[in-house]
Design a protein that fits this description.
Layout lengths: L1 H23 L2 H9 L11 H11 L3 H15 L1 H4 L2 H16 L1
Helix pairs in contact: 2-3, 3-4, 4-6
Length: about 100
């Protein structure tokens, strides 16, 4: 029983880490990579986050910005006030203004 737990632990930790990284670290790089994909990836960050990725994939920057702002409103101040959120908002605003 203990051997199974020890073998499963790295996979559980990797899964938890990859979701956290996708939702809160270098979102701009994630957005840029999603725009080049055939189909956008979906994450467990919330439906608004996924909506932002889908709209970015379609290059609907105004919609992506609105969806990301809705996502930040739901996740709360700690994430909304992060450096990654600020960079992402600036990136999406720049893209929306150029659209």
């Amino acid at each position: 029983m203990r051997t199974r737990f020890v073998l499963a632990l790295p996979f559980v930790l990797l899964g938890a880490t990859s979701t956290a990284l996708a939702c809160g670290r270098d979102t701009v790089a994630l957005i840029e990579s999603v725009t080049a994909m055939d189909k956008p990836l979906l994450f467990t960050c919330g439906s608004e986050f996924n909506e932002m990725l889908v709209r970015a994939h379609r290059k609907d920057w105004k919609g992506a910005l609105a969806a990301y702002e809705a996502h930040l409103a739901l996740v709360g101040k700690p994430q909304a006030g992060s450096a990654d959120a600020s960079r992402t908002l600036a990136f999406l605003r720049q893209k929306a203004e150029a659209q």
